[in-house]
């Protein structure tokens, strides 16, 4: 047996489609040159020829033909009498090319070569994977759900590479089924037991940024830039944008006609509320915008300690704070200021309340609208009225009112 068919002997070679052929050929050559050095002490006079397409491997030994008795280096020279046994037409001074029979290496050496080659190819695959996804950190990819576990989801890309979406990187409302395609951003590449693990994220601000880039051509073209994004995944996000063209309204461009551009993103993020605001270097104006949808009356700024006392009318307090304090928390993150909220004209901090619109995921919109019709805009304004009073003043059924009160009560108990 003068050659080895690599497709049969080394299956890894055939499967390594994402490794470029010159690299593969170099690896195979190195493995067999190591074999040659172990057997002959040197690989200088040997040519290892790899046919990457067919998977064939041939090794030739080169020696110069010299007169009998003048052989000084057996590795580089061969006596004339030995040369003509191989081919009678040889003459002194010619170079003898002789194919090396693989069986000469011995079965154990060939097995070791196969193991070494498999190991080297495995390392190459890992390096290719690390480079591929290391260069794509921050990019959105689409992958298929392969397995759903309690703490993570295993996905497969188009090349069959395994990707991990941990529970901590999933939006709380996410629910995945095997076989469906999902979008996520490449968060990082970790090494676990010397194996690369590609971590995806749907909670990262980069995910929202890339979704905006896809939906808003002005961001993709560089006419609008995203200055900062803060998120409470699945609940609320605030996006500060700035335009480099005075003719373009950055907020309007991001939201689109009747919310056409932002609606797709909201659906992708499981109905996460997205506030798009104009970025400004005027910190007072930025704080005012960051507390949207609340309207501020006035504020006291302490720039040295990065602190702001914000004063609002009573009906705006709940909007500024938001459900579970999410709105004010995100405003603090966006502006890098500690913000305290107070009722206008009073030094006392407002009793915690929540705007009814914050419960739109648990209470039907028509029910909220009916409560607002009778002046109940916040959770406390509903809780302050008895069930009988609400039944008398609204067109709601008693059972519906009881359900609403139960939802609101549960929220206050959490707080």
Automatic annotation (TrEMBL):
GO CC aspect terms: cytosol
Keyword vocabulary terms for this entry: Cytoplasm, RNA-binding, Transcription, Transcription antitermination, Transcription regulation, Transcription termination
GO terms of molecular function: DNA-binding transcription factor activity; RNA binding
InterPro entries linked to this entry: KH_dom-like_a/b, KH_NusA_2nd, KH_sf_prok-type, NA-bd_OB-fold, NusA_N_sf, S1_domain, TF_NusA, TF_NusA_bacterial
Pfam families in UniProt: KH_NusA_1st, KH_NusA_2nd, NusA_N
Cellular compartment(s): Cytoplasm
Highest taxon, organism lineage: Bacteria
Stretches assigned to the S1 motif domain: 138-203
Family assignment from sequence similarity: Belongs to the NusA family.
HAMAP family: NusA_B
Its biological purpose: Participates in both transcription termination and antitermination.
Protein name: Transcription termination/antitermination protein NusA
Source species of the chain: Parafilimonas terrae
